[in-house]
Amino acid sequence: MASFSKLCAVPILLFATSASAVDCPNLCSNGSADCLIVKSEISNADAKAGLNWLHQIFARPADQTIKSSDLLVQFKMTDDPCHRSDTSVTAAGSITNTGEECKVGGDMALSGGTLSAHILVPKELSLSYSSVGGLVVVDTHAETNVNTDKSPIALFSDPSFQEDWGGVVKKVWFDKDQSILETRACIRFIY
User: Labelling 187: which of 39, 72, 151, 168 has CA 20 to 30 A away?
Assistant: First the structure.
């Protein structure tokens, strides 16, 4: 079994120009320069299988609890550095989870070297979700949260890259092949 840090330390290639965006799925699917495309070179079947498992759960809304131990099993992980609780999911579209604040992520390969990229996971997550046209949409409510300490934050080691692409994660769209994050701009991860 892989540890969580090994699972996240995945080399990826970047292609993009920075800009701000509003409708991330459309911008990214139309090849807009307003979307950073991150093509994962992962052949890590464990990570992709875990992401597909999550997509199946959220694509069919139901009241359920996702046990933290099940997440470890699905992602073939031996430990959880965030020490997250079980996740409560409701058919009405809410997701709640608590644990330690921590960073998860890894390095991205760039033409001039590598860039460290992480998501800062807050102690308390309270999200909403829906399924629209095959995409699961997760809203962090960052637009309405006075306390942004309850929203995940995308962090990059390069200050100018952070300025253009990082910041509070407002929404996430995902299916079995991709995740799209809305921060200051749009970032599309293709698995």
Answer: 72
Report residue 161 as tokens. 């890259």
- Between strands 124-132 and 113-121, the pairing is unpaired
* CB neighbour burial string for 56-82, b if at least 16 within 10 angstroms, e if fewer: ebbeebeeeebebeebbebbbbeebbb
How far apart, in whole angstroms, are the C-alpha atoms of residue 135 and residue 112? 34
d(CA 77, CA 47): 9
Cα–Cα distance between 142 and 183 in angstroms, integer?
10
**What is the secondary structure of 135-152 as a DSSP string?**
EEEEE--TTT-S-GGGS-
**Count of CB atoms situated within 10 Å of the CB of 25:** 20
**Cβ atoms within 10 Å, residue 10:** 20
Tell whether the torsion through CA atoms of 87, 90, 95 and 100 is positive or negative: negative
Residue with tokens 């692409």: 165
Q: Are 183 and 16 in contact (CB under 8 A)?
A: no
Averaged pLDDT score across all residues of the chain: 80
With residue 130 as reference, give the H or E element that holds it.
strand 124-132
Whole-number pLDDT of residue 122:
92
Q: Where are the domains of the chain?
A: 4-182
94-109 confidence digits (pLDDT tens): 999 999 999 888 777 6
